[in-house]
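Cross-posting from the modeling subforum.

Setting up a comparison between two proteins and wanted a second pair of eyes on the formatting. Protein 1 (sequence, then structure tokens):
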Amino acid sequence: QVHLGESGGGLVQPGGSLRLSCAASGFTFSSYAMSWYRQAPGKERELVAYINRNGGITNYADSVKGRFTISRDNAKNTVYLQMNSLQPEDTAVYYCKAERLDFPRRVYWGQGTQVTVSS
């Protein structure tokens, strides 16, 4: 059974840091590109960061460049999002996504973890 489980969210003050984790099971993790998305209240879900299958390629939304870092450990079937210098506008539910681009294409989503940045 496929499962993506996010953890590490919570309440943090502006300027603080959090590290999100997404543990995967039920599929060949190393065959999937991984991404973090977020969705704030009243807004559409947006891509935050992307990492390819072997971790050699990463991309970030302009709003988080220089503050967030995505990484993965294929031995642990886990993808991470290190978030530094957090701001209130980073408040959202953060989701991880697994995507297999080869045929047959597959996409899996986690349930999300809440990140709240507030003083």
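Protein 2 (same layout):
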Amino acid sequence: QVQLVESGGGLVQAGGSLRLSCAASVRTFSNYHMAWFRQAPGKEREFVGAISRNGGLTYYADSVKGRFTISRDNAKNTVYLQMNSLKPEDTAVYYCAARSSVSFYSMKLVRDYDYWGQGTQVTVSS
């Protein structure tokens, strides 16, 4: 089974930056599409961004476009989420997700992904 471990969360002031990492324990990391989701207390888990297997395609939620950047280093089996201009409403537990499907047609739904990390807390203060 694929194992994903997020890191890099913490406390940051509004307007600041933070970079999250997700390390994957898999045989061939390049076979997997990757994504980041987040969930705030009392709210449903929501899509943040996704990146295709070779990194050629990316997609972002409207709420983070222009502020967040998803990237991957297949040699290190790691996907990243660079978060800039952070806002208090970005506060949530951030989850890394993976799927091995060939298609990148659907990538915004929780059910599109097969494997999940444990999450890392991001708190943005005003």
